[in-house]
């Protein structure tokens, strides 16, 4: 039996070259930013919940950066594991010009001037409370006082040579304040990648293991980040955050996590002319890795599909722990 079907979408899928004509989205190494963990002691540490990722020492991090460049991934974002002895209530180590991040930026930029170095702006790795902001004695996360600290942190990172600072803290008004602080210090060429819609997600668990940066239980401080990170139930609110970040001078905006928030990525893509980034976070990596290590999913195919899905949703830039591996797979064709 032949159906009377003048319109047959399958004709556009009948041959690899014809599928190529119809392809709307593609992935390339130029879309990726590689997140890296590192600490101040010699030797690398495995991260139990993120097989294949390590916390680097400086030598290993330099090799990782070199490898990323070789794979075609030209940007990395830095996440330090700060020694417990340096964690304080005010997070002052975050703007120490001789701190781990600042020294690491200088080492990376002197070895690889072409590497784009992105830094995280937030207090959690430096805070005795594990919060992105300052905690008041009665347990509130202080907004405006935190923003002042973040400005010092961002300027110190810029002075060390960061190309892009990425505030991930979700305080109100921090993008505008950081822009003003950078400009006042003569860093008008340093970009701001704003974590615009960052959700209070359970998918950050492995990251907090990697850095020992989970909110500390006990005392007055809140056990979660729900008073500053966004409610996973909300989509319109992402547009409200977007509007503010644009007005405040963000150069690029981010949605995080990525996979469970594809609708938000699309919403933001449709509402802005700025480049949109999405962060495939530690828990997304852990899920894929665990299933693949068990032989339940085919790693290369599912990882590239997950990244393509994030691009299709509207992301120009993807932060992913799979960045180097994906870039190599794409090279192989
Ligand atoms: C903290 C920060 C977090 C991540 C990036 N920056 C964790 C958090 O907000 O608690 C998570 C990244 C990941 O899970 O891969 N400022």
Rounded to the nearest angstrom, the distance between the terminal CA atoms is 39 Å
**CATH topology name:** TIM Barrel
What would you say the CATH architecture is?
A: Alpha-Beta Barrel
Rounded to an integer in angstroms, the radius of gyration calculated over CA atoms is: 21 Å
- Biggest sheet architecture: 8 strands, parallel, barrel
Provide a short characterization of the protein structure.
Helices cover 39% and strands 16% of the residues.
Written account of the structure:
The chain is α/β, with parallel strands linked by helices and 333 residues long. It has a single domain (26-332), classed as TIM Barrel. The chain is 39% helix and 16% strand. The chain contains eleven helices and twelve strands. It has helices at residues 16-22, 58-71, 100-111, 143-160, 174-184, 205-211, 236-248, 262-271, 282-293, 299-313, 323-332; strands spanning 32-38, 45-46, 54-56, 75-80, 116-121, 134-135, 141-142, 164-167, 191-198, 252-256, 276-280, 317-320. An eight-stranded parallel barrel has the order 1-4-5-8-9-10-11-12, surrounded by nine helices. It has a two-stranded antiparallel sheet with strand order 6-7. Helix 8 links the parallel strand 10 and strand 11. Helix 4 packs across helix 5 (174-184) and helix 8 (262-271) packs parallel to helix 10. The chain is globular. The relative contact order is 0.14. The model has no long low-confidence stretch (mean pLDDT 97). Bound molecules: ligand PBG. Ligand PBG binds at residues 120, 122, 124, 132, 168-169, 204, 207-208, 225, 281-282. Ligand PBG is lined by residues 120, 122, 124, 132, 168-169, 204, 207-208, 225, 281-282.
């Amino acid at each position: 039996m032949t159906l009377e079907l003048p319109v047959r979408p399958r004709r556009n899928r009948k041959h690899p070259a014809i599928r190529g004509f119809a392809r709307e989205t593609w992935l390339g190494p130029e879309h990726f930013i590689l997140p890296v963990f590192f600490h101040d002691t010699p030797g690398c540490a495995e991260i139990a919940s993120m097989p294949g990722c390590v916390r680097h020492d400086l030598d290993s991090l330099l090799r990782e950066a070199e490898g990323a460049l070789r794979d075609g991934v030209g940007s990395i974002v830095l996440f330090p594991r700060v020694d417990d002895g340096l964690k304080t209530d005010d997070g002052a180590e975050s703007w120490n010009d001789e701190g781990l991040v600042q020294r690491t930026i200088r080492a990376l930029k002197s070895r690889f001037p072409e590497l784009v170095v992105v830094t995280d702006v937030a207090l959690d790795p430096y805070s005795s409370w594990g919060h992105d902001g300052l905690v008041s004695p009665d347990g509130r996360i202080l907004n405006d006082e935190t923003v002042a600290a973040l400005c010092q942190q961002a300027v110190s990172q810029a002075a060390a040579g960061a190309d892009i600072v990425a505030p991930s803290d979700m305080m109100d008004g921090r993008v505008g304040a950081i822009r003003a602080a950078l400009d006042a210090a003569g860093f008008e060429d340093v970009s701001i990648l704003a974590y615009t819609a960052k959700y209070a997600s359970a998918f950050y668990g492995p990251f907090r293991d990697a850095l020992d940066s989970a909110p500390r239980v006990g005392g007055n401080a809140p056990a979660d980040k729900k008073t500053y990170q966004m409610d996973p139930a909300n989509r319109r609110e992402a547009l409200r955050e977007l509007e503010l970040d644009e007005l405040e001078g963000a150069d690029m905006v981010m949605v995080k996590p990525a996979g469970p928030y594809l609708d938000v990525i699309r919403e933001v893509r449709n509402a802005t002319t700025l480049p949109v980034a999405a962060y495939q976070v530690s828990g997304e990596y852990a899920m894929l890795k665990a299933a693949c290590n068990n032989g339940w999913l085919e790693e290369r195919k599912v990882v590239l599909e997950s990244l393509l899905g994030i691009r299709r949703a509207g992301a120009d830039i993807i932060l992913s722990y799979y960045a180097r591996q994906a870039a190599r797979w794409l090279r192989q064709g």
